[in-house]
Amino acid sequence: MDRARDFARQGFLVLPGFVSTAACDALKARAEELVAGFRPETVSVFSTRDQTRTSDEYFLASGDELRFFFEEDAFRPDGSLRQDKALSLNKIGHALHDLDPLFDRFSRTPELAGLASELGLKQPLLLQSMYIFKQPHIGGEVNCHQDATFLYTEPSTCLGFWFALEDATLENGCLWALPGGHTLGLKKRFVRAEGGGTAFQVLDSTPLPNEGMVPLEVKKGTLVVLHGLLPHKSGANTSSKSRHAYSVHLIDGTAHYPKDNWLQRAPTLPLRGFGPVSNG
């Protein structure tokens, strides 16, 4: 398999068995520990339906933090949770790979460093990470999007590593991707607005196509690699089984990262590549 050639042609790779079952289980157990220690003083809901409305300060300041975001359907009309906190969260983001030793080690293996280089990143930097729960019954749909909309560089260099920590099926909301769709160009950017909050900056008003998308049903331990310009989405989880996943996004340090990108980090936590791994 010529991974670079296949990636250039279709805009994604599906690599079964890239990580071990034990590594998946260790990440899941660590996420459970983090959730158990989470005391929700600020309730932030993650939604892809109305992103500018839901981009609160808690979200905007999460680029170099470890923060928790709830599912839209986790709450009763009075604002109380319908079920346990651990079954109500959408994700943890966005600096797990730098702030938690276990996620650091998982994200910075020689195999991933080699893959990033193989796919063309000259100075790979780990920019963002997310632990995604896709909860049973309430795991929300993620609309069709391009990762470079949110993680924009000039030129475009965003690369996504998405790990299935549990089997991903049509029923529990697997990924869908548009083969070759990364050649369509970037449609819009998600930026910090001048007056506060966020806005979408339209670059090409042609909508992303819904036709031709294929489901990526994958087994636990699979790595799905996503080109930053690839249109992709995931369905709602209508099943009784969760669909835990971990994703980390990279950019090339040789590219320009604008100051109006939503995700910004303090100088005290600069972006790192695949250098020394923490010893925690």
Quick tags:
single chain, alpha+beta, seven-stranded antiparallel β-sheet, 13 strands, 19% helix
Task: Provide an overview of this structure.
This protein is of the alpha+beta class and 280 residues long. It has a single domain, classed as Jelly Rolls (Sandwich), CATH 2.60.120. Helix content is 19%, strand content 24%. It has seven helices and 13 strands. It has helices at residues 3-10, 21-36, 51-54, 57-60, 96-99, 101-107, 110-118; strands at 12-15, 66-70, 89-94, 124-132, 142-145, 159-164, 175-177, 188-192, 198-202, 214-216, 223-227, 232-234, 245-252. It has a seven-stranded antiparallel beta sheet with strand order 1-11-6-13-4-3-2. Strands 5-12-7-10 form a four-stranded antiparallel beta sheet, with no helix packed on it. β8 (188-192) and β9 (198-202) form a beta hairpin. The longest helix has 16 residues, at 21-36. Mean pLDDT is 92; it is low at 48-55.
Inertia-based shape = globular
Low-confidence stretches: 48-55
What would you report as the Rg, rounded to the nearest angstrom?
Answer: 18 Å
Strand content: 15-25%
Structural class: alpha+beta
Q: Give me the side-by-side strand order of the main sheet.
A: 1-11-6-13-4-3-2
What is the top-level CATH class?
A: Mainly Beta
- Distance between the ends: 36 Å
CATH superfamily: q2cbj1_9rhob like domain
